[in-house]
């Protein structure tokens, strides 16, 4: 929420909503060694790219 003072709402809220989901997926892959389909990796990459693109001004 500290970023809300520096960034606009359309940037902050998608990141706040998406970041915990992406973190949970990455933790499940790393710690629990879950098997993920190759197409799911594309979704992970697109989600992370979306977060990065939203933070770039």
Main sheet?
Answer: none
Q: Give me the number of helical elements.
A: 2
How many β strands by DSSP?
0
The average pLDDT value, as a whole number, equals 79
Rg: 13 Å
Categorize the overall geometry: elongated
Descriptive tags:
70% helix, mainly alpha, 57 residues
Explain what you see:
- By secondary structure, this protein is mostly helical.
- The chain has one domain.
- Helices cover 70% and strands 0% of the residues.
- The chain is elongated.
Brief rundown of the structure:
The protein has 57 residues and is mostly helical. The protein has helices spanning 9-30, 38-55.
Describe the secondary-structure layout.
Blueprint: H1 9-30, H2 38-55
């Amino acid at each position: 929420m500290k970023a809300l003072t520096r960034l606009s709402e359309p940037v902050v809220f998608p990141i706040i909503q998406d970041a915990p989901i992406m973190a949970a997926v990455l933790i499940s892959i790393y710690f629990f060694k879950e098997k993920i389909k190759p197409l799911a990796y594309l979704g992970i990459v697109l989600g992370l790219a979306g977060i990065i693109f939203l933070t770039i001004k």
